[in-house]
Design brief:
single chain, about 170 residues, mainly alpha, two-stranded antiparallel sheet, about 60% helix
Length: about 170
């Protein structure tokens, strides 16, 4: 397929698959490491927000996941010794989420590898180009989130794609 006809969704999926493959091959598995991509993301979020309290609702909002998904994921992470949840004195129902020390040490190594990957991905781009790429990808993400909300609200529009068409388009690139 010619470059100007390549589908953005396909390119983004290929990039995501490459990132995942590099992460899996370059970061040694650890018993105190994440067992899923979502767990890894949550640990990264906690790592970068150590100075402020993080609660389940923050995780739900940041990762755009349901309360049930957040609850289940956090329970598994707690059982696996990745996080602890501490009840607040003023409201025992509200529990702050913290990384365990062992998970924190492991995540530092992961952050170093992620920094190296970020440098490699943006090699050949100047700071302005990297900022522009982030800006454009934020627009793409916003457009997709808006479309998802419309389809979940049952607002079929001219921009909707039937599952049969979507499936056909996906397989033409595989």
């Amino acid at each position: 397929m010619e470059q100007n006809h390549k589908r953005l969704g396909f390119t983004l999926r290929v990039i995501q698959n490459k990132i995942k493959a590099i992460i899996c091959s370059s970061i040694p598995p650890s018993s105190k490491g994440p067992q899923s991509q979502l767990q890894g993301g949550i640990l990264g979020y906690l790592y970068h927000h150590q100075e402020q309290p993080v609660y389940q609702r923050d995780i739900e909002k940041e990762f755009r996941i349901s309360g049930a998904t957040a609850t289940n994921t956090l329970q598994v992470m707690e059982r696996n010794g990745l996080i602890v949840r501490k009840a607040l004195d003023k409201d025992a129902r509200l529990k702050r989420i913290l990384m365990t020390e062992e998970a924190m040490q492991n995540h530092r190594r992961i952050e170093e590898q992620m920094d190296r990957m970020e440098q490699r991905m943006t090699q050949g781009l100047d700071a302005g180009e990297v900022a522009e790429l982030h800006r454009m990808l934020d627009i793409v993400l916003g457009n997709l989130e808006e479309w998802q909300q419309e389809t979940e609200a049952g607002e079929p529009g001219e921009n909707s794609v039937s599952p049969a068409v979507e499936s056909t388009e996906e397989h033409e690139h595989e």
